[in-house]
Amino acid sequence: MSLKDRLNANHGGNKNQAANQTFMNYSALPLNDELRNLKDELHVLLIEKVNTTPNWSNLNDTEQKTFIRQFIDFQIANNFRQVPINKTEKERVIKEIIQDTKGFGPLDPLLDDPNISDILVNGAKNVYIEKNGKLYKTSVTFKDNEHLKNIIERIVSKVGRRIDEKSPMVDARLQDGSRVNAIIPPLALDGPSLSIRRFKKDAGTIEALLKWGSMSIEMAEVLQAAVKARCNIVISGGTGAGKTTLLNSLSAAIPSGERIITIEDSAELNLKQEHVVRLETRPKNIEGEGEISTRDLVANSLRMRPDRIVIGECRGAETLDMLQAMNTGHDGSLTTLHANSPRDAMARLETMVLYSGVELPSKNIKQQIASAINIIIQASRLQDGSRKVTRVSEITGMEENVIVMQDIFVWKQTGLSDDMVVGYHTSTGIRPEFLKRVERMGIEINGRFFDSAYKHNYVVKTGAMEGAMQNKRTPQIQIKHQNLEQSNNTRQALANRNDIDANILRRLQSNVRNDV
Ligand SMILES: Nc1ncnc2c1ncn2[C@@H]1O[C@H](COP(=O)(O)OP(=O)(O)O)[C@@H](O)[C@H]1O
Ligand SMILES: [Mg+2]
User: Fold this and answer.
1) Ligand 1 binding site (Cβ under 6 Å of any ligand atom)
2) Domain 206-461 homologous superfamily, CATH
3) Which of 328, 332, 478, 495 to pair with 183, CA 20 to 30 A apart?
C-alpha cells in the first residue's frame, strides 16, 4: 500500500475517534523567557566545559549524557540559585540541552517513544510516524532543509557513513538495530528524505509474537519443531509484514550447538546462540567497485563448514546458490523473500534463479525448488496494522510441471471490531509430511493440532488491543532547536571538579576508548 493509501485507509469512514486520528502532536508549550535564557546560558557554559575537558571523546554516549546532566544540575544548584525553577522544569531544561547537543534535534521525542516503529521525513516540514501499525503525520518540523540535512549528517556519521552531493544516498543501521535510509537532493526532488525503520525492543522472540497474537501457541510449537528438525523454511511477505522479525524469532529455535552463518544486506538478525558467524554484504564504492554481494557471501559461507545458513533476504542471483546448498546437505536453512502468497513465492524463486544467468529449463528450476524447500510461512500486515502469520504451507513435490503445495495452517478473518481485525488461526486437516522429520528427531507433536476442528489457543486474546490503548495517549514533549545566539552571558565555566561523577572522571583520565 502506498503512503497515500495508508493515510486514506486511516480515515476509513469509521466513528472511532482514537483510531480515526491521523495527526499526532509532539510539541508542548515552549519554555518561558526566563527558563529559555537560563537554558541558553547553561548551554554556553556546557560547551566551554566540554571544550576544556581533555579526553571528552573517550566517553561513550551514556557517559557524556550523565556528564552533561550532572554539570547542569550542579550549575543550577550553585550558580543560578536566583532563578526559580522547579523539578519538572529543571528536567525539561536538562533534557532539551542533551537533545540539542547529543541528540537528533526535533527527532528526539519520536526516537524516545518506544511505540513508534517507523519515522518518515519528507523534507523539513513533513514528518510522519508509524505507531501501532498506523501512519500519522506529526507536529514535528525542522527549521529548514539545511537543518534537516545537518541532522541526517549527524545520524549517518554516527555509524561511520557520510552523505553529500557526491554520494546522496545512504542505507545504514544504527547502533540500536534500526535501519536508516537517507536520500538528499539532487536525487530527492523536494528536500532531504529520511526513513528510519526501528526494531521493536522485545521483538525477535517467539514469546513476543505470541504476545502480539501473530500466531497461535500450537503453530509456534509446530514451527519451532520444524526448525529443530532442519526443515528448509522460506518466510514470504510484503515490505514491513514482519518477515525479518519472524526469521529472527524462528532462528532462536536452532539448537545452540550448531554453527550458524547469517548473511544480510544490513545486519538485523540478532541470534542468541553462541556459535554464530555474521556476514554483511558491501555496497559498491563511489567508483562503482568493491561490491560483495549476497551471492558471493553464500558461496563463501559454504566453505565455512556451516550447520545452518540464514539468509536475511533472498532477492537475486543468490537464490540458485541457496537452493543448491539446501539440496546438497545444508538443510535447516532459513530465509525470507518478497511475495504475496506462498504460490507467488514459488514464482518469485523461479524468477530469481534466472537472475543468476544460468539457463535452466523451468521444470528443472521448479524441481530444485520443490526438493529444496519444505515450508513456506506467509507473513502479512493486516488492515489494522497488526502482523500475522496468515498461512503455513508445505511443499510436497512436483506433479507434471507444477510444484505441489498444501496449506497446514491458515488465518481466517471474520470481521472488524473497533477497527481491529477479528479472526482466528485454524488447521486445514492435513497432517504435514515434515512431521516425519520432526518425529525422527524425537520431538512429539500432538496430532490433534492438525485436525480441522481443533481450536487454536493464544497467549492473549488479540495483540492489537494493546495498540488500541496506546493510540489514546499522546505524549506532550517540548521540541526546541539549538539557539546559542540569544545568550548574552559568556560567564566562565567553573572548572569545579565536584560536579562530575567520580567514575566518569576516572574514565576521562584513562586513555581507553569505550565504544558503545
Ligand atoms: N508480529 C508482529 N506484531 C507487531 N509488530 C511487528 C510484528 N512483526 C514485526 N513487527 C514490526 O513491524 C515492522 C516491520 O517488521 P520487519 O520484520 O522488519 O518486516 P519485514 O522484514 O517484512 O520488512 C517492525 O517495526 C517490527 O517491529
Ligand atoms: Mg526485512
Assistant:
1) 117, 198-200, 203, 209, 212, 214, 237, 239-245, 386-387
2) P-loop containing nucleotide triphosphate hydrolases (3.40.50.300)
3) 478
Rounded CA separation 447/222 (Å): 10
Ligand 2: distance of its center to the CA of 147 in Å? 30
Instruction: Decide if pLDDT at 334 tops 50.
Output: yes
Least confident of 45-54, 253-262, 370-379: 45-54
- Nearest CA, atom 14, ligand 1: 240
Atom 2 in ligand 1: residue holding the nearest Cα? 387
The whole-model pTM stands at 0.71
CA 465 to CA 462: how far, in whole Å? 6
Statement: residue 462 has pLDDT above 70? no
Residue nearest to atom 3 of ligand 1 (CA): 387
Q: Which of 111, 245, 381, 386 to mutate to test the pocket of ligand 1 (most atoms within 8 A of CB)?
A: 245
Using left for φ > 0, alpha for ψ between -120 and 50, and beta otherwise, residue 214 falls in: alpha
DSSP H helical segments within 274-383, as ranges?
294-301, 318-327, 342-354, 362-372
Task: Answer yes or no: are the C-beta atoms of 64 and 516 closer than 8 Å.
Answer: no
pLDDT at 500: 60
Domain boundaries, the chain: 206-461
Q: Residue 18: is its pLDDT beyond 60? A: no
Q: What is the pLDDT of residues 259-293, one digit of tens each?
A: 999 999 877 888 889 999 999 998 777 777 889 99
> Which of the ligands is closest to the CA of residue 197?
1
- The residues, any chain, with a CB within 8 Å of residue 1's CB and separated by 6 or more, are 9
Is residue 481 within 8 A of residue 143, CB to CB? The reply is: yes
Coil, helix or strand at residue 277: strand
Largest CA distance in the chain: 88
- Residue 178 · residue 158 · CB < 8 Å: no
Distance, in Å, from the CA atom of 88 to the CA atom of 86, rounded to the nearest integer, reads 6
Preceding amide of 106 cis, omega within 30: no
C-beta separation of 176 from 158 below 8 A: no
Nearest CA among 133, 213, 205 for reference residue 461: 213
Nearest CA to ligand 1 atom 15: 242
Mean pLDDT of 442-467: 80
Mean pLDDT of 315-337: 92
Residue nearest to atom 24 of ligand 1 (CA): 199
- Give φ, ψ of 63 to 5 degrees: -65, -40
